[in-house]
Specification:
The chain is an alpha+beta fold. Helix content is about 50%, strand content about 10%. The chain contains eight helices and six strands. It has a four-stranded mixed sheet with strand order 4-3-5-6, with helices on one face. A hairpin with a 5-residue loop joins strand 1 and strand 2. Helix 3 crosses helix 4 and helix 3 runs antiparallel to helix 6. The protein is globular, with a radius of gyration of 18 Å.
Length: about 230
Amino acid sequence: MIDHAHDLASVRDATERLLTAVGKLDNASVTESSRLPGWSRGHVLAHLARNADALVNVLEGRPMYVSGEARDADIERDAPRLLDAQLADVRESAARFQDVGAAPADWSRTVELRNGVTDSASRVPFRRWAEVELHHVDLGVGYELEDLPAEFTERETDFLAARFTGHPDVPPTRLTDGTRVWSTGREAGAPEVTVTGPPADLLGWLAGRREGTALTAEGGALPALPPL
């Protein structure tokens, strides 16, 4: 059972962690490369702000973005801004998201995200939580996958394993951190490959943040995952 109020609180806490970390940077640092190819830290911060507004659109029944091109143009427009402007935008857009989340609503309703993807409104706060946590790591400012809250790591691993379930390009795969087990990939009576490793490394591999060098694969090679 998704607890959207709990997830909204988690988004707020994650946003504060990110703002505190980014507040220690300077203007030059914002222009430096992030861990995402082709994006500066300014691009990541601009994306986070515009994503918050996009999810407000989703919760209020509007299209998430006008178009993919408009989304990309907005990020490029906002990426070069100075640190204070970036911080204010992330903070203010996060507040708008929290305000919409606090309004009375039918959280069981279905909403539409990008590219025709639909989901329960109750899952939108968790989707925002994932954006904030993973992009905090992408900034490369000392916050690592190992620093993510354990609850988030487990739930995001659940989400990503489910996302690749049934994918024709991913072999039937069993994932385990030694305690928990997930299944992903093509449907089959038994897994072809068992992938084992620490929670942060499993998540990093599923999320495209790590190559999986800390993981072990039995029964075959470590699967190559399609882009998210």
